[in-house]
Design the sequence.
């Protein structure tokens, strides 16, 4: 039996993760991500891929982030009929994320039609809500740490990877005619010693390894998040102002709530209300409460429910959200989108950017061209709802809340292996990051067979096993 791999995305980029693993005649797609970011990457979502989707036997997901899952509805639209295997928390997150993604795709198509910038007269979304509804019933929940038989002789197991709720590293075991082989996909790896998510599961052996390299060659900034939050909040409240935090709904918002609760308990910030003003962030927070056995603050073990502090208010309706504009007195507003490209954060910025006493506090990466990036670069006028809004409030940032292992943490995870895999593929990273990690692996671990694959490249992993 032969085993092959084909890279359909996530190779020398951080998005579009899709890896086609062929074991004899069985074809399984590992992750099914959307390309995001620069246009030359996004067009790949629309391009034909050299794979017959209806001939794929199964899709296995590491986690719910759209760069690993957001292509699924398109896959079903293109004829795929098989199952999606993932952890239960991933499955629940997928429903929230894919529906939001369909909504954004539909809005973008309508916008393109209105503005006439598409080369199509009637631009269509990549997928719509019907495609998402066709996708969701095919999801099968697989428990952590148990081998699931995909087909006779091929099983897969899910192991906690930290990162976000439900995220897993995937270990495939293949029983060949003559030999048994293991293939490990790291998935996105989380960080060590985090308050919420566990450390990524260590592994000692595998025959083939696929490791992510998002932060290859880079380190997360030092600095205590609690101290950073305390400073900006106290500085702002002493002026009588409010702190607006644009935040990603999944992972980042829950981390923020953890630190804010700690600050309230320490009595180091004023007792002011915190409004979580994002329906998606609220739904995701409920999942963190429901699946608390997957993170470190398990209430069954006596830990308090950190998301239920009396100062926390979850704003569901649009009316309540808009009413926050009229609020007098200091408060903290956490809202999405994290890069200020859309969502409820826009009306908060529209009303608060010109107020000297308020602050906008960024806690996540801001891509070039976004309002978030422009505010951080010091622009004094920002266009919102077609109007130029003057910026007089304080703009600040803290970039130490990443959910990804950095360079040293990736090496720490790799150092658990007792011997070098037969072959290691560096995936899910910009080229420079992948090169930096590959170099470090060769030099510090002395592993020789390290490969940085390119888009659409394929490799024989085993022959005649
Ligand atoms: Zn991720």
Sequence:
């Amino acid at each position: 039996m032969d085993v092959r791999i084909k890279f359909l995305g996530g190779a020398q980029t951080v998005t579009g993760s899709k890896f086609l693993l062929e074991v004899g005649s069985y074809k399984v797609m590992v992750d099914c991500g959307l390309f995001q970011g620069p246009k030359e990457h996004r067009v790949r979502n629309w391009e034909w891929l050299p794979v017959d989707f209806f001939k794929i036997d199964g899709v296995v997901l590491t986690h719910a982030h759209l760069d690993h899952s957001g292509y699924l509805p398109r896959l079903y639209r293109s004829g795929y009929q098989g199952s999606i295997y993932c952890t239960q928390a991933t499955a629940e997150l997928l429903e929230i994320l894919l529906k939001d993604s369909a909504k954004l795709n539909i809005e973008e198509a309508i916008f393109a039609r209105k503005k006439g910038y598409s080369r199509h007269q009637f631009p269509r979304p990549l997928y719509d809500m019907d495609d998402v509804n066709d996708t969701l019933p095919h999801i099968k929940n697989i428990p952590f740490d148990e081998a699931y038989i995909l087909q006779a002789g091929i099983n897969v197991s899910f192991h906690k990877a930290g990162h976000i709720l439900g995220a897993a590293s995937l270990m495939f075991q293949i029983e060949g005619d003559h030999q048994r082989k293991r293939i490990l996909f790291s998935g996105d790896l989380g960080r060590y010693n985090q308050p919420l998510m566990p450390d990524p599961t260590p592994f000692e052996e595998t025959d083939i390894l696929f490791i992510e390299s998002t932060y290859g060659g880079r380190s997360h900034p030092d600095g205590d998040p609690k101290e950073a939050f305390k400073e900006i909040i106290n500085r702002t409240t002493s002026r009588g102002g409010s702190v607006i935090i644009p935040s990603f709904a999944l992972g980042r918002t829950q981390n923020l709530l953890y630190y804010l609760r700690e600050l309230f308990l320490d009595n180091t910030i004023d007792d002011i209300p915190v409004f979580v003003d994002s329906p998606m962030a609220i739904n995701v927070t409920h999942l963190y409460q429901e699946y608390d056995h997957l993170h470190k603050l398990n209430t069954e073990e006596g830990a308090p429910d950190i998301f239920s502090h009396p100062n926390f208010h979850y704003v569901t309706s649009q009316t309540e959200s808009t009413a926050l504009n009229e609020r007098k007195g200091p408060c903290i507003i956490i809202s999405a989108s994290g890069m200020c490209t859309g969502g409820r954060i826009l009306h908060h910025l529209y009303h608060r950017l010109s107020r000297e006493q308020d602050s906008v506090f960024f806690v996540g990466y801001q891509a070039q061209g976004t309002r978030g990036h422009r505010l951080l670069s010091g622009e004094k006028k920002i266009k919102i709802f077609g109007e130029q809004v003057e910026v007089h409030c304080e703009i600040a940032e803290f970039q130490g809340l990443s959910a990804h292992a950095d360079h040293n943490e990736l090496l720490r995870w790799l150092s658990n292996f007792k011997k070098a895999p037969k072959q290691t593929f560096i995936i899910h990273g910009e080229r420079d990051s992948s090169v930096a990690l590959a170099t470090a692996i060769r030099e510090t671990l002395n592993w020789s067979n390290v490969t940085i694959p390119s888009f659409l490249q394929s490799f024989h992993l085993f022959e005649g096993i």
